[in-house]
Task: structure prediction
Amino acid sequence: MVATVKLERRWSPNHEARAAGKTVDILLLHYTGMQTAEGALAWLVDPASKVSAHYLIDERGRIAQLVDEDRRAWHAGASFWAGERDINSRSIGIEIANPGHEFGYRPFPDAQIEATIALCRDVVSRHPIPAERVLAHSDVAPQRKDDPGELFPWRRLHEAGVGHWVEPAPIVEGPVLTRGDAGEAVSVLRNRFREYGYGLRADSHFDADATSVVTAFQRHFRPDRVDGIADPSTVATLERLLAAIGRAR
Result:
């Protein structure tokens, strides 16, 4: 139960017990990807949908709690982070109302982001969630998901004490790795993404999975250019993030 954030409770039937032995150590942020917040709420509490989240935040900053935090909500789907495939059992899921890329993606209103910050700070105050495990849905499911997308203000959350962020390296000309490339440089890059937590197998080919991971990474950490190409800025930003959590080469 959230003690410091004003909530409306609209309980969803779509939840179950968390898997035995799983501790909540991930905060996962989504956008709803539906045309209205009302439609998203109706879907998340409909037993036929088989989906849910712990919270929904509408554009005006109103927060609805849908599932108790001690229960496993159904929001991540097929996903992976740092060796874990049952993300739902280890996470709190927050849906943020936005039409998304399919229905007219747009910036998130200030009231909505302020409410998101307040709720996130409340959640991380009560669970052992490291900053680097405040994640986008696209981080844990890069082949399937784009949310909450490149317009989501991760820097602003970080400045308010939520999540991991470093200043992105400047976008400059230089060598790139892109789909179809292969070799030692690709192998090293894939392994560095794996070290951060992304779901890539060890390989020396820049394939569709690598493109999806680079795109997801850019949406979160280098949003000025989202193209799935590992340019010098993308690689340097990844190295800055790894160094910040003590995983420098």
